[in-house]
Write a structure and sequence with these properties.
heterodimer, A: 115 residues, mainly beta, 7-stranded mixed beta sheet, 4-stranded antiparallel beta sheet, 11 strands, 0% helix, B: 113 residues, 6-stranded mixed beta sheet
């Protein structure tokens, strides 16, 4: 498909476990963004990449959260020692340029549930 | 602190009528505003945007109005259609960091046939 792909679509994990969430952006898009949406809230910025480097990681809530994009395409969001408060839908988006004001395309999200 | 606020969690309108969704912001550094639409189990999709140098932008049935002095924007949908039923998010960015959007909480619009 031509859209942003996120896997898995659903993930249930036990408190304290480690999880990885994957995002495949649209081919040719140099910018990639991660957002988190809790129930009843709007998406909350976590981090964005321009190419391989994190241009802004100010939204990562604490050092349990880490994201990588080693080859400038696929990105992985990693959460260590998961907590119940981490339960949310994790959204990934990509855009051709480093600018969400141009049209950025979101994936369908990964619903993470920590039990 | 909630820099972008959508104070109405839900809105219900009749098909063919106008839908007006409102959004307020507090950060005067915001200079670009976007509306996204979201269906259940899908990611948000871009709908329409407006730069702070304008006060109106129109795209088909969708018009966004910006009142900078009041730090308020609104999305008008005319005429409303049942397929417009979705959650609508207002978002804002500052030119100093266009990679970061600040979203409102969303308004659920229901258009009744």
């Amino acid at each position: 498909g031509a859209g942003v792909s996120q896997t898995p679509s659903n993930k249930v994990t036990e408190k304290g476990k480690y999880v990885e969430l994957r995002c495949d952006p649209i081919s040719g898009h140099t910018a990639l963004y991660w957002y988190r949406q809790s129930l009843g809230q709007g998406p909350e910025f976590l981090i964005y990449f321009q190419g391989t480097g994190a241009a802004d990681d100010s939204g990562l809530p604490n050092d349990r959260f880490f994201a990588v994009r080693p080859e400038g395409s696929v990105s992985t969001l990693k959460i260590q020692r998961t907590e119940r408060g981490d339960s949310a839908v994790y959204l990934c988006a990509s855009s051709r340029y480093r600018d969400m004001n141009t049209e950025a395309f979101f994936g369908q999200g990964t619903r993470l549930t920590v039990v | 602190d909630q820099q972008v606020k959508q104070n109405s969690p839900s809105l219900s309108v009749q098909e063919g009528r106008i839908s007006i969704l409102n959004c307020d912001y507090t950060n005067s550094m915001f200079d670009y505003f976007l509306w996204y639409k979201k269906y259940p189990a899908e990611g948000p999709t871009f709908l329409i945007s407006i730069s702070s140098i304008k006060d109106k932008n129109e795209d088909g049935r969708f018009t966004v109005f910006l009142n900078k002095s009041a730090k308020h924007l609104s999305l008008h949908i005319v005429p409303s259609q049942p397929g417009d039923s979705a959650v609508y998010f207002c978002a804002a960015s500052a030119s100093s960091n266009t990679g970061k959007l600040i979203f409102g909480q969303g308004t659920t619009l229901q258009v009744k046939p």
